[in-house]
Amino acid sequence: MATEPETPVAASAKEPAVPSLVDRYFTRWYKADVKGKPCEDHCILQHSNRICVITLAGSHPVLQSGKVIKSISYQISTNCSRLQNKVSGKFKRGAQFLTELAPLCKIYCSDGEEYTISSCVRGRLMEVNENILHKPSILQEKPSTEGYIAVVLPKFEESKSITEGLLTQKQYEEVVVKRISATTATS
C-alpha cells in the first residue's frame, strides 16, 4: 500500500519552528510599570556573556497604540548626553555608569506624549543605538533587534543579581493578562 508523499506545507507544520536569534541566545527579562508609570514596560535581553540589551516591551504605549514617533533624544540633561559615551579598552574605560533608574533616552511622539526609557539594570553603558535617531520607526518595527535602545554591561559580581526585581517571560505575560482583564472589567 503506497502512501502519498507529504506536501511541503504538511511537512513544515510537523517540524518545530526554528527559534529566532534573540530567542536562541538571549534570556528575556521584563520590568513592568517603570518608575510607577502604568504600562511603560521595558524588556532586557540578557546574553550568556552577561551583556544586557535594553528594548521596549511589547506592551509599551509606543508600540501598542499606533503612535508616531517624532524624535528620540539621548540628551538626558544639559550636562549629560548618552551620545558622549566613549568606551575603550579591555576594561571599558570611559563608559558611563548607570543605576537601575538612570534614564537612557527620551522618546517624543507626535501627539505630545513623552516617554523616558530607563536602564533597568546597573552597569556600564557600552553603546547606544544611533540608528533610531535617524530612523525612529525601526524602534516600532523591530524593537528586539535593530530597534534596541542601548547595550549595558553589568559588573561581574552583580551579573547574577541583576535579574532580581525583574519578571520572567511567563510572569510578565501574567501581568499583561491581569491588566487587560482589569481594563475590560472597568469598561
Automatic annotation (TrEMBL):
Assembly mode: Interacts with F-actin. Interacts with G-actin.
Keyword DNA damage found: no
Lineage of the organism: Eukaryota, Metazoa, Chordata, Craniata, Vertebrata
Compartments where found: Cell projection, Dendrite; Cell projection, Growth cone; Cell projection, Lamellipodium; Nucleus speckle
Primary location class: other
Name of the encoding gene: ABITRAM
Any GO MF annotation of the entry: actin monomer binding
Family (UniProt): Belongs to the ABITRAM family.
GO cellular component annotations of the record: dendrite; filopodium tip; growth cone; lamellipodium; nuclear speck
Keyword Nucleus among UniProt keywords: yes
Organism the protein comes from: Tursiops truncatus (Atlantic bottle-nosed dolphin)
Protein name: Protein Abitram
A biological process from GO: dendrite morphogenesis
Matching InterPro entries: Abitram (IPR039169), GCV_H/Fam206 (IPR033753), Single_hybrid_motif (IPR011053)
Recorded superkingdom: Eukaryota
Keywords of the record: Cell projection, Nucleus
